[in-house]
Amino acid sequence: MDIGIGVIGCGTISSAYLRNLTRAPGARVVALADLDLQRAAAQAEAFDVPVAVAPDALIARDDVDLVVDLTVPAAHYGVNRCALEAGKMVYCEKPLAATGAEARDLLELATRVGRTLGGAPDTFLGAGLQTARKALDDALIGRPFGAVAHMVSNGPERWHHDPSFLFQPGAGPLLDMGPYYVTTMLSLFGPVASVTAEGGRTWHERTIAKGPRAGERFAVNVDTHVTLLLRFASGVLATLLTTFDVQASALPRFEVFGEHGTLSLPDPNTFAGPVRIRTSREGDWQEVVSVPGFVTNARGIGALDLVLAQRAGRAPRASGALAAHVLEVLEGGLTAMRTGQRVAIDSRPERPAPLTPAELEPLGWTPEVHA
After folding, report:
1. Cα separations (Å) of 38 from 9, 11, 21, 32, 33?
2. Fewer C-beta neighbours within 10 Å, C or N terminus of the chain?
3. In this structure, are residues 253 and 185 in contact, taking their beta carbons and an 8 Å threshold?
């Protein structure tokens, strides 16, 4: 039986999801919703979805089994809670909720009503990061003990037409981009045990560079240069730098250090990219043979895996527990910056299992793969 999918939130990111969800024969996107009904109708026409309605009406539909929540972060908790209470499975764009307390409430509700909850990002399920996962599992560099990752940018106001919201509490480089990096680390090393952090902001005002509001200045109300030190329960120590303040950099994107060598990983905000290795036995970097997997923008594979998880009675890989743990870690970083103290992380989600594209075949998904 086909799974009926309803998507709430028809902004920019919805096109990537809809390109993927509408081509899975075992699932049908039956309705779209947005507070702006014209925007929902435009996306419904573009992707041949039969119905465009208000969010409440979508949640009430009997033919919607899974709600994919692509609304703005401030709305995530309310939309997710309403959908779970209506008996729907839920997959949510990052973050799962605005606060860790709200995320925990959603997890408890999902357990109570017996519905599966999941959350983005799902980029760690792509071929690039799954290749890195296999390299670690195969002990190609021995036991990992450390990692460094860098999200270095000179700020979204250079290209975004309305960037001011990215410089307010709840955003900034840590909460906007950090989930991709922390989720990848969790898939490689397991859960975080504690975090400490430092941060600051170089400019207290920014100027929009492009678009109809070019030249307009806006206030910066969040730290824009942040470093986290993460201690994982497995013993791995990792450093994560996220910044909107750096004009140029030659730093590596992501490296993992092991007893016998180093892995170089692709951008965690993508589904592909080379994985390279250099060991004590090799004189130069060598590219690791990629596992078969998703190489294009496959946003939504986490939602499809969630459907199969509900059927099989297992946890989805991009689970609500994983997304809530990421939020707890990032909130812990903000607390550590404010207090100057190391913050313990209480939750302990399971490390998600590796993914092979064949596992999505029950839903008819036949993505482009790289062998």
Report:
1. 12, 12, 21, 11, 10
2. N
3. no
Local confidence band at 72 (pLDDT 50, 70, 90 cut-offs): confident
Length of the chain: 371
Cα distance between residue 97 and residue 73, in whole Å = 7
Beta strand pairing call for 144-152 and 254-258 = antiparallel
DSSP H/E element including 333: helix 320-339
The pTM (predicted TM-score) of the whole model is: 0.93
Non-local CB neighbours of 66 within 8 Å, separated by 6+ positions? 3, 4, 5, 6, 27, 88, 89, 90, 91, 303, 306, 307
Q: Please give the residue that has the higher pLDDT: either 292 or 41.
A: 41
Name the nearest CA neighbour of 185 among 226, 116, 251, 233.
233
Using CA atoms, how far apart are residues 127 and 367, in angstroms rounded to an integer?
A: 11
* Rg of the chain in Å (alpha carbons): 20
Residues 15, 43 contacting (CB under 8 angstroms): yes
Across the range 308-335, mean pLDDT stands at 94
